[in-house]
Design brief:
Layout (H helix, E strand, L loop, with lengths): L14 H26 L6 H30 L3 H70 L3 H27 L8 H13 L3 H40 L4 H6 L9 H17 L13 H10 L7 H8 L3 H14 L2 E3 L5 E3 L9
Antiparallel strand pairs: 1-2
């Protein structure tokens, strides 16, 4: 059985994969826009202002994802300065978007929590009324005991018993009304917030804010990931159309080959060079005359190799001090060196017309 190992390393994604990517991207962007709209639309109740703020939220969201797409394009072109500017623009818009999403999600959770709180407040109101009636009954019982001690059972105790019976009936009626209230189903988000608050031992408001921020950042990163994935896939498709499939053999062909030895050409070139050298007449160069100590001293002082002192020149020339004295005397006569009041020598340089 024969196998074709020369298969492309990567193909463009199929229609199903790209459809899934576009669906996830559109859904995440739409969710981010909706949550931002929840915040921006609540800024003002005027319809015109709501339209303006809503359009601003949509512009921020779409501009944010386009900035992320442009960041990937510039980075692929190795335009790092442009990529940095695009990323900075994306970071600003992402901060605004995350803030809008936090406000929108927080508003939605607050509405769900407020509905639960309204129903709970009704139940608490009935409980308070029932508890107040129970306290009144206890007070009546205490008064009845006083009447019994005063031997006024016929007048006081009978009246108190009638009042207690009426209070019991009222209490039972309130309990029946309380129990007839519709049961409020706690949403999954509210239940999650309560569970987080209990497990982390924090307040419910803190748990709600932490969960909202986490969901907002996760939604933004989720959408940015798929936008970047679309951009990378489009760039790869363009390269695939131009270059063709990248196979294993393509990698082998692109490997750097070892340079071949050009033996014949090298021999011919060396022979020609040898003949050229043989034909050219050799002109013997005259040996350079060694410089005198005077010339060496001038060169050293002119190039600032030594300081203008007899000790430095003596050390540099490695000669006797008498010869250095003669050299400095000649310098003084020619005006190359002058003597300062502090007996230090000052180098003036050799004039262009001076001859050694």
């Amino acid at each position: 059985m024969l196998y074709d190992n020369n298969i492309p390393v990567r193909y463009p994604k199929g229609a199903f994969a790209m459809g899934t990517v576009y669906s996830f991207t559109g859904a995440s962007i739409l969710a981010s826009i909706i949550f931002s709209l929840l915040l921006f639309l609540s800024i003002d109740e005027d319809p015109i202002m709501q339209i303006l703020f809503g359009g601003l939220a949509v512009i921020f969201e779409l501009g944010k994802f386009f900035a992320w797409y442009e960041f990937g394009e510039r980075r692929a072109r190795r335009n790092y300065a442009g990529a940095a500017s695009a990323f900075a623009f994306y970071a600003v818009l992402a901060a605004i978007s995350i803030g809008g999403s936090v406000g929108g999600i927080n508003s939605a959770t607050n509405q769900a929590q407020s509905h639960v709180n309204v129903q709970q407040s009704k139940v608490n109101n009935y409980d308070m009324q029932i508890a107040a009636i129970e306290r009144q009954i206890e007070l009546n019982n205490s008064a009845a005991e006083k009447y019994i001690e005063m031997e006024r059972i016929a007048t006081g105790v009978a009246r108190i018993q009638r009042e207690n019976d009426e209070l019991r009936e009222q209490q039972l009626k309130l309990a029946a009304e309380r129990d007839s209230l519709p049961v409020v189903n706690q949403g999954s988000v509210i239940g999650l917030i309560d569970s987080l608050a209990q497990s982390l031992k924090i307040q419910t408001e803190t748990a709600q804010l932490s969960l909202v921020i986490f969901l907002s950042v996760l939604l933004d990163f989720f959408a940015a990931f798929f936008v970047g994935l679309i951009g990378e896939e489009l760039r790869f498709r363009n390269q695939f159309r131009r270059v063709g499939p990248i196979t294993i053999d393509t990698y082998a062909e692109n490997e750097v080959k070892e340079p071949e030895l050009l033996t014949n050409q090298q021999h011919d070139t060396s022979a020609e060079n040898t003949e050229t050298v043989e034909k050219e007449p050799v002109v013997p160069k005259e040996p350079e005359k060694p410089k005198s100590l005077y010339e060496q001293a001038i060169d050293a002082l002119s190039t600032n190799q030594v300081n203008c002192t007899k000790r430095a020149v003596t050390k540099y020339l490695k000669t006797s001090s008498d010869e250095v004295d003669d050299i400095f005397s000649r310098f003084m006569e020619e005006g190359i060196v002058s003597k300062k009041p502090n007996n230090h020598y000052q180098w003036h340089g050799v004039p262009d017309t001076a001859e050694a």
